[in-house]
From TrEMBL, chain A:
<comment type="similarity">
    <text>Belongs to the ABC-4 integral membrane protein family. FtsX subfamily.</text>
</comment>
<keyword id="KW-1133">Transmembrane helix</keyword>
<feature type="transmembrane region" description="Helical">
    <location>
        <begin position="20"/>
        <end position="44"/>
    </location>
</feature>
<keyword id="KW-1003">Cell membrane</keyword>
<dbReference type="InterPro" id="IPR003838">
    <property type="entry name" value="ABC3_permease_C"/>
</dbReference>
<dbReference type="GO" id="GO:0051301">
    <property type="term" value="P:cell division"/>
</dbReference>
<dbReference type="InterPro" id="IPR040690">
    <property type="entry name" value="FtsX_ECD"/>
</dbReference>
<dbReference type="Pfam" id="PF18075">
    <property type="entry name" value="FtsX_ECD"/>
</dbReference>
<feature type="domain" description="FtsX extracellular">
    <location>
        <begin position="57"/>
        <end position="148"/>
    </location>
</feature>
From TrEMBL, chain B:
<dbReference type="InterPro" id="IPR005286">
    <property type="entry name" value="Cell_div_FtsE"/>
</dbReference>
<keyword id="KW-0067">ATP-binding</keyword>
<comment type="subunit">
    <text>Homodimer. Forms a membrane-associated complex with FtsX.</text>
</comment>
<dbReference type="InterPro" id="IPR015854">
    <property type="entry name" value="ABC_transpr_LolD-like"/>
</dbReference>
<dbReference type="InterPro" id="IPR017871">
    <property type="entry name" value="ABC_transporter-like_CS"/>
</dbReference>
<dbReference type="GO" id="GO:0022857">
    <property type="term" value="F:transmembrane transporter activity"/>
</dbReference>
<dbReference type="GO" id="GO:0005886">
    <property type="term" value="C:plasma membrane"/>
</dbReference>
<protein>
    <recommendedName>
        <fullName>Cell division ATP-binding protein FtsE</fullName>
    </recommendedName>
</protein>
<keyword id="KW-0131">Cell cycle</keyword>
Amino acid sequence: MKFDRTIKVLKSNLSREPYIAASAVAMLTITFLSLNLFVLSLYFSHKALNYLSDKAQISVFFSDVMAREDILKLKEKYEKDERVQSVRYVSKEDALKIFTEISKDQPALLESVTTNPLPASLEIKAKELSQLSPLADEFSKMENVDDVRFYKDVIDKFKKWVTIVRVSSLVYLSVLFLVSISTVLMTIGITIHGKGLEVEILKLVGATDKYVKGPLILQGVFYGITAAFISTVIIFIALPFIVPILNSLFRSAGTINLNATVLFSMLFIELIFGIALGYIGSALAIRKYLKY
Amino acid sequence: MIKFEDVSKSYENGTQVLEGVNLVILPKEFVFIVGPSGAGKTTLVKLLIREELPTTGSIFFEDTDVTKVKKNLLPSLRRKIGVVFQDFKLLDSKTVFENVAVSLEVVERPEGEIKQVVPNVLNLVSLLNKSECFPYQLSGGEKQRLAIARALAHEPKVLIADEPTGNIDPVASDEVVHLLEKINTLGTTVIMATHEVGIVNRMKRRVVLMHDGKIVKDEKVGRYEV
């Protein structure tokens, strides 16, 4: 069947069944909207986790008897360690500067500091959160190490977050995919169910399978594309209201702005998803309802 | 042109609807297949267009064994045969014009040709003035004429009419039969399954009488007596 005829039949189907077409698009739009919101939440939580992971570090405080050169040797050694992302040396002088800076509103406190009581330290960031704990153990066993600080509880919570978000993403996306397929199956199924006789007649007058299926498949794809487009437009309009809410939910990550690339990527992915969903849904519906 | 060779058909529940049917139909013939309800007339039609398969035997359309045609080649077989169904089988969502056009669209005729052919065919069946009507706006006789127009549009070699007068009044029945006769004189083989005695006896054409799934009489110029 020629493509222009397929388009003609599609137009005719849509104009003669506007309410069925509208409800199919509405159902799919709701599905896509929920997918959009989920992806946005995932994006924000991912950013938040990255931010929190980035902040997680071990602070190793050395006693004053440990020579600066020895600490720098240790720094060099750990910079070559595969588990370590970065090592920063904070000298006694740097520590005092930081202390002075953060205590500048408390002159009484600053006056009381006559000598520098602050220790030199190394700030170590690991590539994986899970490696912080073993690294902390290693340092605490070393000589001339006064204290090793890392916020174990917080890191454990991060790890739980990462696992929960990843697992729930997979589960949610799988469920959403099944729900979407069922939605398309139902809505397109309703559309084509009434065409059973028409399809039977077309086959009896010599129509090929392609001729019969073409417009129905295209109808499903059309629903998918339209719904993807509408839901993305709605999200674009709603973004100024949604972003502050998400930012407040993930405030620990600081303010996150969605740029045009992210939004157009979302539109692109949704269009692909819409086309695939429309195609698979209508192909399955044809098999289910028309006994091909 | 059409040949049934020892064709039998029975269903899984054991019902035998055709038994040892042998029949040859030549090009340009007008043949009545007659018999009471349940004689096997409709089954014969269904087997010829491969809507169903026989349990045993072979059916030839020209040189093709219909029973062995692959599924993907069925459309091309069906395009050579026009079928008029007792229940019309019209596309309710399409206009009179579109109902006829569809049989040309499926054989991928160009748009321009469709616009030329459809009015001619509608004129032949006296429905040109109803081109834009939908089937529900037509009378029973008009629906049947539309079904004939659709079956004719792509110029099939054979036109099969399965009880075409079963659902319409006597006046409309006469119109339909005259139309089929006219189509036959234009060179198309016509097979009409019916149980209407008056029509068969008035036409004086070949009559194949069926009873309980068997051919019990085949006369060149026959009559049908109940």
